[in-house]
Amino acid sequence: MLVVSSISKGEVVWWEDQVNEPDWVSVPRCRLYIENLPAEARRKFEHYMYKTGVDAYEALPEYDLLPCDEWKLESDDPSMYMNHSCEPTCLFECDRIKVDGVVVMTASRDLHPGDELTFDYATSEDHEQNWRCLCGAPTCRGRVTGDDWRAPEFQQKYQGHCMPHVANLIATDGAVGQFKTWTPPAFLTPTQVAEDRVKYAAAFWTKEECRVYSSFLADRVPLVVKRCASLGKHLVYQGEGDGEINLSPVLAGETVMLLPPNVLRRENQIKGSALAYNASLQVRPYKQAPGALFSLSETPDDLDNFLNHSCDPNCDVVVFPTNYAIALVANRDIFPGEAVTIDYDATEEDLVAQGGSFECACGTSNCRGRVVGWKYRTPIVMGSSNTKDKKERLTAHSSPSSVSDESENETVAVVDVVGVAR
């Protein structure tokens, strides 16, 4: 990629406009997600992949919108064609990235028409590369590796210009873990999912497969929105389906809803909008670089918009770190006519900053009084003493395409019993 008009040293060359150009913003993915893509889709993702956190990788934003069999090995984003150089013409501005999660690049020197726009790949990639460099710069290192950040001369040259995860490696001499602060159990880790792929089968479903299973659940566990003076509009287990009355409860451990990752937005894209926060569920913590991520409802009429809070909820929510699908699981038996509830504090990190904190009126014996977000709470562990029994009853289908009336008794584990939010 070449310069067509003069650019002064320090001038912004490229930045990620998350607010005004959401279609150009990609969703961060963990390594486990990438490794489980079909072979051809993985090849395309890794071709454009760049690292934005300890276990966060981004590629083309259109890959988040299209089924993977429709991905193309081309992009309209010119930044995807920036080559590496050991003497780059562009630098990351780490302070800006730390403040609001926006990736910014500036010119390392005055640039003139015909100059190539380049950056040093080792300032963002910290371990998954080892190749011969042909940049031709007098300072060329010869090879670009995942350990380049360890060299004192590299650290001095790029001080303040490495992506935060690389800067943290330098600051701690490599002793950086994925999670530096407590995170609620609602947010499954890639390690948890990888250790039990059968139990967490839904973590590897595509958006389309999630929608198939979600539709199946809507028939199997019929829910309806009702209104009353004390609760307003709220979601209730209807206890009937296909025109037949069903007085059976939803058993503890059964999946009540599966929310596909329909609309994913960075925190910057919904910041300041109480309406957007109220229609979303947080699926990635703030401290997990490159920052918080939220899953929004597609329409105001989506049933998940009517999930009420309770400090003693009858459902837990599990967020899958791979596809960001969300499973709503009964933590006790739910009977027909009973409201479906979750604990907002179990996954919503900072309701105070969102402008959504409120005085709780759930009336339960363990009511906390004010709902503010898990950031302000001591660790919340959801579920009762019969957690073992509930885990044994978890069901889910190995592939949502096989869901049918005959598949009711198939065992399909979807989730662990953990905390909730909305």
Overview of the molecule:
The protein has 422 residues and is α+β, with helices and mostly antiparallel strands. It has two domains: 12-172, Beta-clip-like, CATH 2.170.270; 190-407, SET domain (Beta-clip-like, Beta Complex), CATH 2.170.270.10. Helices cover 18% and strands 19% of the residues. It contains eleven helices and 23 strands. It has helices at 31-35, 39-48, 94-100, 152-157, 164-172, 190-195, 207-220, 267-270, 274-278, 351-354, 387-392; strands at residues 12-15, 50-53, 56-58, 83-84, 90-92, 104-107, 118-119, 130-132, 143-145, 223-228, 232-237, 240-241, 244-245, 255-259, 263-266, 280-284, 293-296, 308-309, 315-319, 326-330, 341-342, 358-359, 370-371. The protein has a three-stranded antiparallel β-sheet. A three-stranded antiparallel β-sheet has the order 14-20-19. A hairpin with a 6-residue loop joins strand 19 (315-319) and strand 20. It is elongated, with a radius of gyration of 24 Å. The relative contact order is 0.13.
Summarize the structure.
The protein is an alpha+beta fold and 422 residues long. It has eleven helices and 23 strands.
Provide the fold topology.
Layout: E1 12-15, H1 31-35, H2 39-48, E2 50-53, E3 56-58, E4 83-84, E5 90-92, H3 94-100, E6 104-107, E7 118-119, E8 130-132, E9 143-145, H4 152-157, H5 164-172, H6 190-195, H7 207-220, E10 223-228, E11 232-237, E12 240-241, E13 244-245, E14 255-259, E15 263-266, H8 267-270, H9 274-278, E16 280-284, E17 293-296, E18 308-309, E19 315-319, E20 326-330, E21 341-342, H10 351-354, E22 358-359, E23 370-371, H11 387-392
Parallel strand pairs: 4-7, 18-21
Antiparallel strand pairs: 1-6, 2-3, 5-6, 8-9, 10-11, 12-13, 14-20, 15-17, 16-17, 19-20, 22-23
